[in-house]
Design brief:
61 residues, mainly alpha, 1 helix, rod-shaped
């Protein structure tokens, strides 16, 4: 017997709470990692600007 196309599909189950929490933790880790990289790039840029201007005490910040 063929399925009737008018029959509604059973509702999808919600994912378990730990999976939603794991996704949230992963997103927060990506954001924190991005901020860390951004901060390090800003530090390196400031150091390069200092060195390019001819100063010698650039690493003492």
């Amino acid at each position: 017997m063929m399925d009737d196309p008018r029959d509604p599909e059973p509702p999808l189950e919600d994912p378990p709470p730990w999976r939603r929490l794991a996704g949230l933790v992963l997103i927060v880790m990506f954001i924190l990692g991005g901020l860390f990289v951004w901060h390090k790039i800003a530090q390196m840029s400031a150091l390069q600007d200092c060195i390019a201007s001819g100063r010698r005490d650039c690493g003492l910040n």
